[in-house]
Each structure stands twice: as structure tokens, then as C-alpha cells.
């Protein structure tokens, strides 16, 4: 009875300056599984089950964009006996979200590195929710911040090569906005708040370009144990900060 009352009080007292875009690093699934005496796949399934509640909490406070980091490009180097079940769990979770048609799903990442079946399922979820008038949910699979910047520069170079622009001319005009227009999240607001669970206090390459002025919130709970009250505390912490968009 204590937590529902506390959550309701937090919700009532939230200031008006709430984030538009929240990035979430869903970390700690494997450690949670070990802590409760189960295998890794059980931890991933428990983490996947917590995604829908999170999106509900985000919608509750009016967040417009959520970016979920579900798999890094480095994770693709894990042993096949761990990676294959993880990819299946991720695809199943995204399928489940798409069927509900409550959110507009947008895969972001190096989809060309995924098995063809997994990539196609993510693209199908995107297509199935394209016309949904709901919160935009970026599904970062597999995602790496350095890889995104490299892909953006490659895309920029290819675009101008097709136009016949010389490298010398391009070097004279390229700027932040031009590179930004080729990122996976082009056209979206940068994340105002980035949440990382599991107690780790580092970005690990998440939204490197976009998070230059983001606020960060690190939560001790492993992702499967992340609760509504933890989310509301993160939102409150963000709202109470005095944001400085410089140094």
C-alpha cells in the first residue's frame, strides 16, 4: 500500500518541465538472472516483460519519444547459444508491441548486422505501426554510437557523391546539422534524459552524438526490477535540475 500512495504523490508533484525524449539503457538482465538463480535467457525474458509497463509510464507523463537500447553491436560477439535466444526474445517483444498498435515503432541500428529473419521482423513492426498516432519508440538493435556516426558520415558522403559534389567542396560546407540529418534518429528531438539501470555509471556508446546536452540518471535496480516509482524518481530528478546547454 505504501508504494502506490508514494507514486501517486510523485505524479501529482511533478513539475511542468518534463522531458520530450527519454533514452533508456535496459541494463542488468544477466546479473538479475544470476541473482535469482536462473539462466541468462530467463533474465532477458524478464527484462522484455518490463518494456510495456515502461512505455505505459512514459505515456502517462506525456513523453513524446522513447529510445530503448536492447542490444549493442558489441553484444553480437556473444556466443551463439546466448545470442540466438536473445535475438528471438527481442523480436518477440517487438512483435508484441506492434500488435497492440499503441506506439509507433522505429528500429534504429545496424540492421544489416542482424540475421535476415530478425531484421525483417523489426522492419515489419515498423511498417505495421507507421500510421499509429502514438508515442514514437526507437528500438535500438543492434546499436553502437560510434557505428551510428560512421554510418551517418558514409551516408552523407554517398549522398553528395551521387550529386557530383567534390570532397573539397563538401569539406568546405559540412557542418553539425548535415551530419545530424543522416543519424538513425534524424528529425527527432535529442534525448533530454538518459536513464541507465543496474548501477553502472557510463554511457557505453549510447546516443553519443545526440546526448551532448542530455541529463543522466543512474538507477541501482537491475532492469527487470525497475519499477514505476524508479521511473517517476528519474523524471522528478530531471525536472528539478537546472539545465545548462553549454559546458
UniProtKB/TrEMBL annotation:
Sequence similarity: Belongs to the UPP synthase family. Z-FPP synthase subfamily.
Record-listed E.C. numbers: 2.5.1.-
Cofactor binding mode and count: Binds 2 magnesium ions per subunit.
UniProt xrefs under SUPFAM superfamilies: Undecaprenyl diphosphate synthase
Name of the protein: Isoprenyl transferase
Single Gene Ontology MF annotation: magnesium ion binding
Organism encoding this protein: Nocardioides dokdonensis FR1436
A biological process term (GO) from this entry: polyprenol biosynthetic process
Functional note: Catalyzes the condensation of isopentenyl diphosphate (IPP) with allylic pyrophosphates generating different type of terpenoids.
Keyword Metal-binding appears in the UniProt entry: yes
Subunit structure as annotated in this protein's UniProt entry: Homodimer.
Record InterPro entries: UPP_synth-like, UPP_synth-like_sf
Residues that hold Mg(2+) according to the record: 27, 215
Catalytic machinery residues: 27, 75
Cofactors (names): Mg(2+)
Keywords: Magnesium, Metal-binding, Transferase
Residues that, per the record, bind substrate: 28-32, 72-74, 78, 196
Class in the EC hierarchy, top level: transferase
GO cellular component terms, semicolon-separated: plasma membrane
Keyword Transferase: yes
